[in-house]
Amino acid sequence: MPSPLPCSLACSPSAPAPPRPLRTAAAPPTRPRPGAARGAGRASSFSGVHGLAVDRQGRLLAGTVVGNQLWQVDRSTGAARVLIDAPDGQSDDIAIGPRGELAWTNYLMGQVRLRENDGAPMRVLAKDLPGINSLDFDRRNGKLYASQVFLGDALWEIDVAGQKPPRLIKKDMGGFNGFEVGPDGLLYGPLWFKGQVVKIDPADGRLTVIAEGFQIPAAANLDGKGNLWVVDTRSGELVRVELASGRKTVARQFKPSIDNLAIAPEGTIYVSNMADNSVEAFEPETGTSRLLTGGKLAVPAGLKIDGDTLFVADIFGFRQVDAQTGEVRDIFRMQRDPELEYPFGVGLSASTIALSSWFTGSVQLVDRKSFKTTAVLHGLKAPADAIPMPDGSLVYAELATGSVTRASGPKFENRQLIASGLGGPVQMVLGRDGALYLTEAAGKLTRIPLDASAPLRVVADGLALPEGLAQTPWGSFIVAESAARRLVEIDLANGTRRTVAENLPIGLPGGPGMPPPYVPTGVAVGGDGSIYLSADRNNGLYRIRPQR
Questions:
Q1: Residue 200 and residue 146: Cα distance in Å, rounded?
Q2: What are the start-end ranges of the E strands in 307-448?
Q3: Mean pLDDT across the stretch 436-449?
Q4: Residue 43 contacts residue 103 (beta carbons within 8 Å)
Q5: pTM here?
Q6: Please, is 513 exposed, middle or buried when counting C-beta atoms within 10 Å of its C-beta (0-12, 13-18, 19+)?
Q7: Residue 440 and residue 90: Cα distance in Å, rounded?
Q8: With contact defined as beta carbons under 8 Å apart, do 302 and 427 qualify?
């Protein structure tokens, strides 16, 4: 997994209703009737897929950090199920030992875990290693090696017995990601930040460059035939490197954001892509590939609509979705577009898009016509959402400080505090009355006058972890109660509410250390009253049609 990110529970590939093309009839807006949501974007397994491995039973294993799970994928059908559930299953990389042991890295928890077999208990072999990323066994002697990347830059030998502290082999390599131990006992892998693939002697840390000139090499595996296979996450290329000469050959062009690979005993190469939850099987002998599993979205979060266009903050991407047809278009894709910083929230004005990431502490501003990044605000304290204003200023909510601030002027250096003391602001929208409405994780829907003409007013209280919200054409608000897995409609005049839909695939909980509003459920309402909902438990996009 490339750079810091979060974690947790399940994302079932089964949606409450089958995905169907979006069609919106031109009719006066009417209220949605309570009932089930209809799928508008194909659901998928995982929550961003990273490390892969084929175990001694022939099972293809796949790891997800955001979802905190380790999955098993059927290599014939692509059917996937959770093998190790959250939070222990959080896995950026997976390795199989000489006796069939299973080891994996808890990237955000900073731990290395192992279990001898499916029925054995899990053991923590090492901890306090933030950003522990890749790992592999030396199959000759059972030694285990692991590397830190993004939240650290170091290579360690891990005591498989879990009794001794990790032994430092080398530091400051340049991001030794997705590596494999060769039959000679050397470690073969990429340097993410240097565009190289190298081999490292674990005895003394001596590093030798094998090939260079990659854009962002993410992982490398040996095929036992004198070749090192490398995935380049920025270019989307699967590259064969001849170990003897360092010669590179592009074997297959995939979409950018490919993250890892695994080579099965018969030679099939499996490649993961974090931006669409896909795993593809490539056959080196024929040069062909087939999709095992995948979806249209990665981890959909914040959601806004303008006309027939939905804008989706997708954590590993930023997407447009046609509300008429369901067609998905990439605006930004992780690693292909380096300015993208794991967006959780999206805000719109007539000219600007604001992508907020509480995880990286940033807000990215994008021109709506060119989709070029115009500014990035860094150093914010967990910005959960942001709205670009018509006057060019930016209003953002910080989860960590419980505040809402307006930034303006050159480089947005002028800061004006609008509200403080909030109980975990999550998502915001501008109401038609010009006031700001936001959800608080503490259970509130709150109105904040931007002109300070009146004090803050709690519109509704006692909500079950409210996240996404949107105003209907008739003036009420639709709010996603993620802890209750339902949508409610709230009357602004008296705060009364009714259930619009329930038993929804929302409310993915975060792993240890993550905030309760983890992946926010996005909500948008179209001009005809149709409600759109992002689902973080199965990565689907849903619509509830209004009653005619």
A1: 12
A2: 309-313, 317-322, 328-333, 345-348, 352-357, 362-367, 373-377, 383-388, 394-398, 403-408, 414-419, 425-430, 436-440, 444-448
A3: 97
A4: no
A5: 0.91
A6: exposed
A7: 27
A8: yes
